[in-house]
Amino acid sequence: MVIVRNSLAPVVTPMELKQAKTLLLRQMTLSESSTYSIAERLLALSLEGLPLDEPMRAAKKYLEITARDVQAAFAKWVRPADFVQVSLGPKPD
Fold it and tell me: Over the chain (93 residues), what is each successive 10-residue block's mean pLDDT?
C-alpha cells in the first residue's frame, strides 16, 4: 500500500495538465456532435436550472485551472490513507 500512496503524490506536470484540459475540452465537443445531443443537453440544463451556456463557462474554467488548483483539489478531496486494496484470485502461497 505504501507504493500506491507514494505514487499518488499530487505533482502535476505542465504536460499532464495540458493533456487533462485537452481531454475535457474534446469530450465537450464530442458530446455535441448531433442535433439530438445538443437538444438533450439544452433540455437537461434547463431542467436543472443551469444557464444554457454552462458548457462554455465550464470550458473557460478548465482553461484557467493551474497545477496548484489540481494539487489543492487533490489535498481536499482525495484521501490515500483510506484507500483499500482488493484482490481477486487464489490466495498467494
Answer: 52 88 82 81 93 91 91 87 86 75
